[in-house]
Design brief:
Layout: E1 2-3, E2 8-17, E3 26-28, H1 39-52, E4 59-61, H2 71-81, H3 86-100, E5 109-121, E6 124-134, E7 138-146, E8 149-157, E9 165-170, E10 179-184, H4 190-198, E11 200-202, H5 206-228, H6 231-246, E12 250-252, H7 253-260, H8 266-281, E13 288-290, H9 293-302, E14 306-308, E15 314-316, H10 322-328, E16 329-334, E17 339-344
Antiparallel strand pairs: 1-5, 2-3, 2-5, 4-11, 5-6, 6-9, 7-8, 9-10, 12-13, 14-15, 16-17
Helix pairs in contact: 2-3, 5-6, 5-8, 5-9
Amino acid sequence: MINLFNAQLDSLSLHRVGNKIRNEQLFLSENPYQTDDELRPLLKEYFLKPFRSKEENFYQFKHETDLEFHELFNLATEVFNNPHQTHEVSKKIARHLFEQSKHQHIKNGELYVAHFENMMVDNEKVDALGIFKSELKHDFLQFDQQDKDLEIILQQGVALNKLDKGALIFNIHKDQGYKVLSIDSNKYDTKYWLDQFLGVDFFEDENFYTKEYLKFCKNFAKDVVLPAEDKQQEVMFMNKAMNHFASNDEFNEQKFVEDVIDNPELEPEFRNYKEEKAPKYNIEDVADFPISNTAVSATRKKIKSTINLDTHVQIKMDFVSTDKAEEIVEKGWDEERQMYYYLVYFNQEEKK
């Protein structure tokens, strides 16, 4: 969990990074940018707002050999060890980004490197290094009064309501490659920002494992439960899985299987499916982990507990108790009509 409300913008450096293969230039400001009381809160909101409204998917710096060879990890460490050197380090960060700007689709833009204090991460107060890039320019009108008339002046600039690219590197869990958040509004060059510039992978914590395991369950329901049984049982399986995660603080795979899988024939199918698919979700050796309530809530919003019928009828099944669901929803076959049917019991219609 993060809290950016009390974050303070301690220093800011501003550079311009061009596209190297288009022979655009790298411009490095000689001095840090001096913000005033009017500009500082606007910039803070511009930089941090996208991270407050975004689902928390933490990353960490990764290197195939060792973190000591990871350029941005070392530059972030320089800042955290000596924040007064942030501007000099920001020039190295700008050069590093410039070296990665080698694809024709990558746009030039302004690079902002900021040092923040008073960030809250996992209930711990930390400082952070912010790296942001503005790429898209927007038209806006300025007006100039000339004698008895107003003149319209068309200009281009950066819109403060949308950050194009950004990363927050939090000074926490250094031995694991720090905790990093990233946003990228322009999806055409995600590989360039995440992989080539930041060099990050998902941070493997309880939030990560909870999300990945539930993704794995969702696909097991679709690939195995649905073909073996029917849509109702696919929905019921995911409903049981979500309720199991929501009602436990710790995940244990054996307990999960016992609680969620009613059909004994599906238990070996579940084991086989995990053995085959686990690498895709990075859960090969994962059978026990703390459950993240935040991740459960975020995933529940994405799960569709709806049965869509070819008669243009939808049945939404969202039950706290799956036993109760099986009591009030029955599936059958009507010989006369030669059609399947669902029989739903209820006390009264809800008026909303």
